[in-house]
Specification:
heterodimer; A: 216 residues; alpha+beta; 9-stranded mixed beta sheet; two-stranded antiparallel sheet; 6 helices; 13 strands; 23% strand; B: 220 residues; 5-stranded mixed beta sheet
Chain lengths: 216, 220
């Protein structure tokens, strides 16, 4: 009887340990890494055996990589930490709180039009710099407030909402000022990037059309 | 053989030995230079491929002593590597394990685990903000990590610690993960513990989902 109990306890412990390993094991890396099978040997075989030719090949590879990197200072928008930076590879020139898109969704119950208020991720360029911008309220701004969409274009214009400057980076998205500075650092916007007045002033004067903007 | 002859012979042998050893040195330094060139080339090619992808990737750069998030080759987030426990030998072991027997230069994050964290903004504040901006307050909340881990294959773990006084998210899972890691330790699990600011940790934690590509640069 005692032996049977001992065997059962040992079996249970073994099953427990195996189950613990099984349930906490790492998933198969190949599931994720299907497109990343970069191995040392396959790359090394492409390098010429002649040292001078190999040096040349390395130089070309580095040149190709450098071509992708920005040569001037660039803007980085970290949507996770709600921060905006003007930086180079080695140093940060400007760091400020910002607000980016909520990720929320709005559906017009009448027309069933749908908007997702996300800040786009990727690589963009400054394509316009506007002083004293006026906001032309889009349809969603009226729908969200439960108001009728005006027929008169002038009723859409708001001279205060965007602050002193707007920096456009395509598709109607801007880095601009805000009348809600207390909300900076929280992702409360409809997709644009809001920055406080002082920081926006510095940023506006340090960038040009064509300055790269990296959003992640 | 005269004494002078013996002396000349000994001198000749000495010079020949010196020349041979000098040649060996040259051969060995040429080999080292070639190996370093190959390594540099491969790292550059790998990064080129990642950069062309236009998606962020993590560069654990022991040569520059920095953790970098990069997008199309540009650094978009950086943090000095401040190991809590590891020494130079530990870092070299980390690189060796990362590359593994199959000599991989890029590995995706396979898992991340948040042990403890604190909410960035009080829920009561976000409730008011949510009403104003007409958004579910939960969408506005962010976690400031106190401790989390990124895991790669081969039992490789990067543990991030901050000075946040965090609360455990799931105590049972934490215990399971810790127990599992203790059991795997004899089989070669390796953890590098790095400290950073809560804000830096928040970005790193939110970006690095499973599948996130990671490359590594060995110490100089």
């Amino acid at each position: 009887m005692m032996r049977r109990i001992t065997y059962s306890v040992v079996a249970l412990i073994v099953i427990g340990v195996v189950a613990l390993f099984w349930f906490t094991r790492l998933p198969d890396e190949e599931d994720f890494a299907a497109n990343l099978p970069v191995r040392l040997d396959s790359l090394a075989s492409r390098l010429p055996s002649d040292p001078k030719a190999a040096q040349r090949e390395l130089k070309n590879a580095k040149k190709s990589l450098d071509k992708l990197r920005p040569v001037t200072a660039y803007v980085v928008i970290d949507t996770h930490a709600s921060k905006i930076y003007l930086r180079t590879r080695d140093s940060v020139i400007l760091k400020a709180d910002c607000s980016t898109g909520t990720g929320g969704e709005l559906i017009d119950s009448v027309t069933h039009r749908r908007w997702v208020f996300d800040t786009p991720r990727g690589i963009f360029k400054v394509n316009s710099k506007i002083k004293q911008p006026w906001w032309r309220k889009p349809d969603w701004a009226f729908i969200e407030d439960g108001e009728k969409i005006p027929k008169d274009e002038r009723e859409r214009l708001d001279p205060a909402m965007m602050g002193d400057y707007a920096i456009g980076f395509g598709n109607g998205y801007f880095i601009h000022g805000t009348i809600y500075e207390r909300l900076l650092g929280v992702n409360v916007t409809h997709g644009c990037v809001r920055v406080g007045a002082d920081d926006l002033d510095k940023l506006f004067n340090k960038i040009q059309n064509g300055t790269p903007i990296y959003i992640f | 053989m005269t004494r002078a002859h013996s002396l000349i012979l000994a001198l000749g042998i000495g010079i020949a030995a010196m020349l041979i050893s000098c040649g060996n040195d040259k051969t060995s330094s040429a080999r080292t230079a070639a190996a370093s060139l190959v390594d540099d080339y491969m790292q550059t090619q790998v990064e080129l491929r990642l950069a062309q992808n236009e998606k962020p990737y993590l560069d654990i750069n022991f040569a520059e002593n920095e953790l970098w998030l990069k997008l199309k080759g540009a650094v978009v987030w950086s943090c000095p590597i401040t190991p809590v426990e590891s020494d130079a030998e530990g870092l070299r072991e980390f690189v060796k394990k990362f590359r593994g027997n199959d000599q991989r230069l890029v590995r995706p994050v396979v898992e991340k685990h948040l042990f403890s964290s604190r909410e960035k903004t009080p829920d009561s504040v976000l409730k008011i903000v949510g009403e104003v901006v007409k958004v579910d307050p939960e969408l506005l909340q962010r976690d400031l990590p106190a401790r989390f881990q990124l895991l790669w294959e081969n039992g490789l773990i990067l543990e991030i610690r901050t000075d946040v006084q965090g609360k455990a998210k799931a105590s049972l899972k934490n215990t399971m993960v810790q127990l599992s890691q203790k059991l795997q330790k004899p089989f070669g699990e390796l953890t590098l513990i790095v400290s950073m600011t809560p804000e830096q940790a928040m970005t790193l934690y939110r970006v690095t989902n499973p599948g996130f590509p990671t490359m590594i640069h060995p110490p100089k």
